[in-house]
Structures are given as structure tokens and as C-alpha cells.
Design brief:
The chain has 430 residues and is mainly alpha-helical. The chain has 19 helices and 6 strands. The termini are far apart.
């Protein structure tokens, strides 16, 4: 049985243990101690004269030696017993403090205290006032007035609106900075422009060096205003245009093969569109068959080419794509030598269906073929193919073919190309 005195003794023994646990819990961690003392050491090291001198005038290795010495001096000069004990007895605390102080102080002090160089002057001028439009204006003005005395005052005003009495500051935050008089700034800008270094590489990569105002002024000098040639004589007399034209003529002359002597067609009959003529002496090796597409008077070819181009532009995009593919030589060779007429008919039929404003028919899997058949019946029966194709004829082709077939179906006219065993569905509508 436990007596009251024994119980009191046990309770008195437990009280010191609880106090020790509370004290242990209230003790700061190593991280907290580091965060407490690091700002104190950073401030002292940043002001250390020997370390600052090493950052500005020595190499990185010597600067790190001076940094470690500056950290030790800062701790000893603090007279803080706890900080001195942590630095001496806790390697983790000491190493982390050395590393973070060096990483956070050296780059800033080195940039602040290193000697001034020509690159600093160039970078300050390249940075200018931070406005790319202002740099464009400087380049344009220097191109016309680069050697004039008053240009220095103009540059000062363009930079910050000043009157030129305040020099151009270079690294003003550094004790090694300098103030450059504006006449010297003018000479340095002229040199940078001449060497194509006034714009930074980043500005060139982003195409910020392209000045729209300068481009418009240059085009105006060459007779081009708002995208229109207003003075052909200026354009033709421009040295750059003359050089380009001369180069183009030279390249064309080099690439143009020697033209063979044209054959004598004086004995050949007069041809028309759609005719096949044979040039040769009867020997199959030397005979050439030519399909006459369109015959034009001399001097009218370019005008007709533009007319055809304008006609194509009135067609839907799908039409132009199919016609382009049909006209390309590699595809034409593939169609004629490998796939033959079937694929050509399918593409041409699709082209005509697009012109009519509809593609395919859910009730007929061969509507494209039927459509091209009927359109071609109309074209051959009415000699439509003998006339050159125009935008108007192309646009009205489906309507004319439909009207013609309505007359055929009503018995008013006869289709000379009809055949007996047609596989068209009875309810097929054109």
C-alpha cells in the first residue's frame, strides 16, 4: 500500500521531467538558427572591403578564398556566443552558411565592382531607352545627319527629352561607372550602325530591327506608294531593281536550252482546235502527233493566258485543285501510262459536278460518270468545245447542258450520241 508521503515524492519527481521535455520542445531547430543568423552574416560580408576588392579585381577562386575569410571575420566580430558555437561545432551549419553567402553575394558584387569595359559602353547604347521605335528613329536620323554637330543634341532629346547637358550614364549604380558626353555617344552609335551592331541579336531574332517607316520611305524613293507603282521611271532606274533584273536575265539565259529549228509547216493544212496533225516523213521513229488546243494570233497569247487565269479564279477551290492536278506533267504521265482514261474521267466528272454545285447522288453510285457523259453529249452535239473556254461559258455550262437535255427528253431535238443499253436508273434526274 502506497502512503501519501510516497505519492507526494513520486509527483515531485515527475515535475522536473516534464519541464525538461518542454524546454527541449522550445529549442530552435538548426534550420531556424540558420535563417536567424544568415542575414546578419550576409550584411557584414557584403561590406567587407577585402572581399569586395577581390570580387571586382580578382578571379573567382581568389574571391571565394576572401569570401570564406570574410564569413569568419563577420562571425567573430558579432560577439554572439551561440553563433560562434554553431559555426565552430556544427559542420552542416558552417558549410551551408559558406555556400549560400558566396552564391548570393559574389554575382552582385562582381557585376557592381568590376572595371568598366568597351562592352559596357556598347551594351548601354544598345539598350538605349528601352523603346524599339526610338531606336528605329535613331537609325533613320543617323543615316541622314550622322556627321552633323547638332545630332548630339538631337540624340539627347530622343533619349529622354533632355537638352544634352546631362551626359549619357553607363553603369550608374557602380562606383566604376562613367558619364559619356553626347558627342562621343553620337560617334559610338555611328560605329555600331556601320558594324550592324546597334540592334541586339535578340532584337534581330525577333525581327524588331525591321523599321516599317524606313521601308515605306525606301519604297517611295523607288516609286512605290501604298503598294502601287506611282512612278515606273523611278522603279526602273533604281540600282537595286536594275541589278535584280540583270541577274534574272542572266539566269534565264543560262537556263534556257538552245531552241531547235522549227519544222517547216508550209505544206501542212490549216488546223483548228481539236485536230490532230502529224509532223514527220512517215518514219514512226520521227513522227510526232500534236493535239491543237487553241490557235491564237501572235501577240495575243499573254492576253488569253490572263483571261484563262481570271476564269480559273471564278471556280471553287476544289475545281482549281483538280484542274491543277490534271495539268501537272507527273500526274498526267501517271494517268495516261498507268491508270489510263478511267481515272481521268472520274476526276473530270467530279470537276463538272462541283461546277454544277453538287457532288454525288445517294441513289446512283455512278452519277459523276453519267453527268460527264451527258455534258459531253451536249458539248459535242452543239460544237461547244470549238469555242475558247471563258469564265462565262464555264459558269453557264451546267445550265446550258440541262436545258439541252430537257429538249432531248421532250423530243424537240435528237441526241446523236444516245445508245440503247443504258444502265441509268429509270428515275434518274439530270
Amino acid at each position: 500500500m502506497q502512503t501519501s508521503s510516497a505519492f507526494s515524492f513520486a509527483r515531485e519527481q515527475s515535475q522536473p521531467e516534464a519541464a525538461d521535455q518542454e524546454a527541449e520542445a522550445a529549442k530552435p531547430t538548426l534550420r531556424e538558427l540558420h535563417e536567424k543568423y544568415k542575414p546578419i552574416v550576409l550584411e557584414a560580408v557584403t561590406q567587407d572591403a577585402r572581399y569586395r576588392n577581390a570580387c571586382g579585381h580578382s578571379d573567382y577562386e581568389n574571391a571565394m578564398i576572401e569570401c570564406n575569410a570574410a564569413v569568419r571575420r563577420a562571425i567573430l566580430d558579432s560577439h554572439d556566443i551561440e553563433l560562434i558555437r554553431l559555426f565552430s561545432d556544427v559542420p552542416e551549419f558552417r558549410q551551408r552558411l559558406h555556400r549560400e553567402v558566396a552564391d548570393e553575394t559574389y554575382p552582385k558584387l562582381h557585376e557592381l565592382l568590376r572595371p568598366l569595359s568597351d562592352n559596357d559602353i556598347d551594351r548601354a547604347i544598345q539598350s538605349w531607352n528601352g523603346k524599339i521605335e526610338s531606336k528605329h528613329a535613331v537609325v533613320r536620323y543617323m543615316k541622314k545627319h550622322g556627321r552633323e554637330k547638332d545630332t548630339a543634341a538631337w540624340l539627347a532629346h530622343e533619349f529622354d527629352g533632355g537638352d544634352g547637358k546631362t551626359p549619357f550614364a553607363i553603369r550608374p549604380e557602380s562606383p566604376n561607372g562613367m558619364a559619356l558626353p553626347w558627342p562621343k555617344v553620337q560617334r559610338r552609335i555611328a560605329q555600331l550602325i556601320k558594324e550592324d551592331r546597334f540592334y541586339t541579336q535578340v532584337e534581330k531574332d525577333n525581327l524588331d530591327d525591321v523599321d516599317p517607316i524606313a521601308i515605306r520611305e525606301t519604297l517611295a524613293q523607288r516609286g512605290i506608294v501604298d503598294g502601287q507603282v506611282v512612278d515606273p521611271e523611278k522603279l526602273d532606274s533604281d540600282p537595286f531593281v536594275q541589278r535584280v533584273m540583270a541577274d534574272a536575265q542572266r539566269i534565264a539565259a543560262e537556263e534556257t536550252p538552245e531552241q531547235p529549228t522549227p519544222p517547216d509547216l508550209s505544206g501542212q493544212p490549216i488546223t483548228r482546235m481539236g485536230d490532230n496533225i502529224t509532223i514527220g516523213n512517215g518514219d514512226p521513229v520521227h513522227e510526232i502527233d500534236i493535239m491543237v488546243n487553241e490557235v491564237l494570233p501572235k501577240g495575243k497569247v499573254l492576253e488569253r493566258a490572263w483571261e484563262i487565269a481570271r476564269m480559273w479564279k471564278t471556280m471553287p477551290y476544289e475545281n482549281r485543285t483538280i484542274m491543277s492536278n490534271l495539268a501537272k506533267r507527273p500526274l498526267k504521265k501517271l494517268l495516261m501510262e498507268d491508270l489510263k482514261l478511267h481515272t481521268v474521267s472520274e476526276q473530270y466528272g467530279s470537276l463538272l459536278r462541283i461546277a454544277a454545285g453538287e457532288l454525288g447522288d445517294e441513289n446512283s453510285a455512278q452519277q459523276d460518270e453519267k453527268y460527264i457523259s451527258r455534258v459531253n453529249d451536249w458539248r459535242y452535239a452543239t460544237r461547244d468545245m470549238e469555242a475558247p473556254q471563258t469564265a462565262e461559258s464555264w459558269r453557264t455550262m451546267p445550265k446550258k447542258a440541262t436545258e439541252w437535255w430537257e429538249k432531248v427528253r421532250a423530243g424537240e431535238i435528237e441526241n446523236p450520241y444516245v445508245f440503247e443499253h443504258s444502265n441509268e436508273p429509270e428515275d434518274y434526274e439530270f
